[in-house]
Amino acid sequence: AEIAPGAVHTPDWLSPDEQRRLVAACRDWAAAPAGMRHTRLPSGGVMSVQTVCLGWHWTPYRYSRTTEDGSPVKPLPDWLADLGARAVGDPAYRPDIALVNFYDQAAKMGMHQDKDERSDAPVVSLSIGDSCVFRFGNTEHRNRPWTDVELRSGDLFVFGGPSRFAYHGVTKTLPGTGDPATGLAAGRLNITLRVSGMD
Ligand code: MD3
Ligand code: FE
User: Fold this and answer.
1) What is this structure's pTM?
2) Which residues are annotated as a binding site for Fe cation?
3) Ligand 1, atom 23: nearest CA belongs to which residue?
């Protein structure tokens, strides 16, 4: 379903097997060094979401090849870039950044734009575990109009064209809605694939 020009939601895109494989991979990626942590904000606060980055490390508001403590960022495996190419239906799409977000039952993400990439290539989003309420806004400001969409385990979202720089966020997760058979007993995982536009 196209919820806005360039914003395409494909429910149930990942097979149960692919979801299990991704959960297992996320467990490896979450391990130190360069593992999962609450991103520290310039304000002094920390994000409620926990994140591990592959390819390039994101801190507000730039990408680098090393984490805060100087550890090298984990590589983005070819099989994950291939999955991204399949998601957008273009073998030439080669993401070199993956951000893996983990939401516990209290985590949310405020309305923001993703502008730190130097590319307007699409962003691919994959969701696993508990469902969430995803808020898709407009390109002007973080306020209305927006559309709330429930994202469930296995769902794919591609944000390209005019939707690439739209404000978006996660207002809440819906605890207990995930299937433990994915290997995730609780919480929500979101994997976004992006093109950095950097060498
Ligand atoms: C629309 N993640 O990591 S995924 C993020 O569920 C982020 O963890 C949310 O927003 C999550 O930056 C939302 C959907 C998403 C991701 C990136 C986008 C929508 C987007 C970039 C541009 C436009
Ligand atoms: Fe985002």
Assistant:
1) 0.98
2) 112, 114, 168
3) 164
